[in-house]
Write a structure and sequence with these properties.
247 residues, alpha/beta, four-stranded mixed β-sheet, two-stranded parallel sheet, 11 helices, 44% helix, globular, DUF3025, DUF3025 domain-containing protein
């Protein structure tokens, strides 16, 4: 992993910095990613991180569920996946259990089905958003001008925490079009244990099958990206797409 690549001062990395910096430092010193994560986990790891080779061709989700071990490759993707396991272990374990249930019931085929699709989407690209109701209403209706300009002062009362490890990886080199699939949350996001409990309770087959997520271009969040101080930032319809018209 390239030295100095992660800017831990970025707002999207704030929840992950406490564990992420020491794990990154160990990796830079020559420790493998899986071993660095195990050291950070201490005496009560949520899973045991192991080299990818230990999976030996088994389905990834089933292997984790049956062995309690998380196959880990070198690189940012699995590094961030490990950090999410460390901070939100019950939520990650619940998603893994639901994946295993779906695989047992449906097998592994070309189509995952709605529940596994939703799990994969949130696990890779999800985020939690606490926000006043007017912000949520504007977001769901994709009223971007209202959301980010007219209601801009309300963002001081909002908080977003990225959950998806693929999105965290992409945010190492941020691009304007990076979009999270956000879940409306009333969890106390400043306390990881409470966030973890809230997510664990919310992750059910019924709730996930409904795909209760709303797309949000994360660099549009006030304070997250210098360029959005200029309101022309939001004029890009390739990123801030209008709501689809009813058929």
């Amino acid at each position: 992993m390239e030295s100095g690549l992660i800017d831990w001062s970025a707002p999207w990395f704030d929840p992950w910095r406490e564990a992420g910096e020491p794990v990154e430092a160990r990796i830079q010193a020559g420790t493998s990613t899986w071993h660095a994560l195990n050291i950070q986990a201490g005496d009560r790891p949520p899973v045991r991180f192991v080299p990818q080779e230990e999976m030996q061709g088994a389905p990834y989700e089933r292997f984790i569920f049956e062995s309690g071990c998380c196959p880990t490759r070198e690189g940012l993707h699995d590094f961030f996946n490990g950090l999410v396991w460390l901070r939100l272990p019950r939520a990650k374990a619940r998603l893994n259990a639901l994946q295993a249930e779906q695989i047992a019931a449906r097998g592994i085929g070309p189509a995952r089905g709605p529940v596994r699709d939703a799990i994969t989407l949130f696990d890779e690209n999800g985020a939690l958003l606490q926000a006043p109701q007017p912000l949520w209403d504007a977001l769901r209706q994709r009223q971007w001008h209202r959301l980010f300009i007219e209601l801009r002062p309300l963002w001081e009362q909002a908080r977003l925490q990225v959950f998806g490890h693929a999105l965290l990886e992409k945010l190492v080199l941020p691009r304007k079009d990076l979009t999270a699939h956000v879940w409306c949350s009333d969890a106390p996001l400043r306390d990881p244990a409470d966030t973890d409990d809230w997510l664990q309770q919310q992750f059910t087959q019924a709730s996930l099958a409904r795909k209760p997520f709303t797309p949000l271009p994360v660099l549009g969040i006030p304070g997250w990206w210098p360029a959005n101080r200029h309101f022309s930032f939001y004029d890009d319809s390739d990123v801030f797409r209008p709501a689809r018209k009813p058929a």
